[in-house]
Amino acid sequence: MAAKWLKDAVFYEIYPQSFYDSNGDGIGDIEGIIEKLDYIRSLGCNALWINPCFDSPFKDAGYDVRDYKKVAPRYGTNENLYTLFQEAHKKEIRVLLDLVPGHTSEEHNWFRKSQEAARNEYSDRYIWTDFCFEGANGFPYVGGESERSGTYILNFFKCQPALNYGFLKTEKPWQLPVNHPSVMATREAMKDVMRFWLQKGCDGFRVDMAASLVKNDDENKSGTSAIWLDVRRMLDYEYPDAAMVSEWSNPPLALRAGYDMDFCLNEKGRGYSTLLRDYMNHNGEDHSYFKKDSGGNINRFLDEYLKWYEDTRNLGYISLLTCNHDTIRPRFNLDETELKIAYAFLFTMPGVPFLYYGDEIGMRYLNLPTKEGGYYRTGSRTPMQWEKSANLGFSTAEAENLYLPVDPAADAPVVSEQEQDKNSLLNTVKAILALRHRYEDLQADAPFAVVCSEPDRPFLYRRGDLMIAVNPSGQILETKIKDNPEETVFQIGSCSVQGEMLTVGPQSFAILK
Ligand code: GLC
């Protein structure tokens, strides 16, 4: 069963490069996160996920890890990170690090050793064919870069050789079975990395490409799942409070593999993508449910979600997110009012929600050249906008020395202004998250049931004793309801009940009791 504290957890994802620069070198750092813990708490977030902050050549923004146990000097020292754990805990904020178990940087020492011609402890740590001109049987591979006569398999970019967790079905002599001592050693090495940080006070991990470990796996990912179940046993025994969230986007498989939470990711054609970013499903035409009058339909999301929810409600949590470091910011196609309603929905659903830094003020997606392997993702990774001062309060460095430029628009949203405005997106986020903490019925475990999802009607759902009404359209929508709510707990726009009729105004959202 999932760690208890997740019941009322709301996560804030921090891209460390871009959150707050405490020493004026143009890039965010761990001390900067420590300085902003009160801000994070003021939002109503009580947990963090920090993208990889480990030593790396940064060809994939840190997802190419060179040393799992060392904080990258540009963010500070290991001691700074230990201090972050302590300071966060004082404020009742938990901290998840990002674990990248599927691959390392090509500059990791394990890989350097693995490249050597003479056999050694690390020869099988990565997946090598037996001959310099032998392809990898359909897997992406690199040859010609090592003394060793063989080619090696990649997990993502060219700089990210795949770690060897074995093959469920072996087809070539160089493919080791999942119980081979060499591949068991890879698994133990990753557990050792986890223990290292957990011992220092980290509260768990977001796991990168969690489904990618075992190659030639079956449809149910039984090879990879067995590894995670083994990790789960270790955690249950040694760190029962630790939490794990997977980048898998298949809650039935991920939660059965022992994860506490799994993300719904923004993949083309999938339910989650129809809520905020439907333009990606049809070459630009946008029928996102939360886009005003776009002809969206909540059932495109619910069809997939409800199956997952029914299947997994006793296993763990589905995590809905506003965005992440790989995804176009929701402000790209939605305006502030649309975002308010979208977030109100995301934050009142079951499971554990994730807020991506800057989405709380509606930071824009910027069109920028690629940085550190970001490509289109770079535009969602720009510096946090704190106030209307130099570099929007992110850093005291010269503008040209910033990791990425800040939003140049005169009306770039900033925290300090939105804090002053009662109706701002920021204050709306705070109000909804405060309600989520106040009402157990809005939290991860409380029952969820769809009451109405017909087109041209308000979307209605129950969380425990509460009823929630959503209308992202520009029209007034009505529907008959059975039991008469007595009180409006929260509303955006308007919502009223007369007799059996519930009327929800244009672009409105309400929580009724
Ligand atoms: C995940 C990360 C992404 C990274 C990739 C390779 O998808 O979220 O940022 O590039 O894995 O590690």
Question: What does this protein look like?
Answer:
The relative contact order is 0.11. The protein is built from twelve helices and 20 strands. Helices cover 24% and strands 16% of the residues. It has 513 residues and is of the alpha/beta class. Strands 11-10-9-8-5-2-1-12 form an eight-stranded parallel sheet. Strands 13-14-15-20-17 form a five-stranded antiparallel sheet, covered by helices on one side. A three-stranded antiparallel sheet has the order 16-19-18, with no helix packed on it. It is globular, with a radius of gyration of 24 Å. The structure holds alpha-D-glucopyranose. Alpha-D-glucopyranose binds next to loops. The site of alpha-D-glucopyranose has 9 residues, from loops.
Overview features:
24% helix; globular; alpha/beta; 12 helices; 513 residues; binds alpha-D-glucopyranose; 5-stranded antiparallel sheet
| Main beta-sheet annotation | 8 strands, parallel
- Spatial strand arrangement across the major sheet: 11-10-9-8-5-2-1-12
The number of helices is 12
- List the uncertain runs: none
Average pLDDT confidence is: 97
The first-to-last residue Cα distance is: 30 Å
- The assigned structural class equals alpha/beta
Summary, kept brief:
With 513 residues, this protein is of the alpha/beta class. The protein has helices spanning 30-35, 37-43, 78-90, 109-114, 181-199, 222-238, 251-256, 273-276, 299-312, 336-346, 415-420, 425-438, and strands spanning 11-14, 47-50, 54-55, 67-71, 94-99, 141-142, 152-153, 204-207, 243-246, 261-263, 317-319, 354-356, 448-452, 459-463, 466-471, 477-480, 488-492, 495-498, 501-504, 508-512.
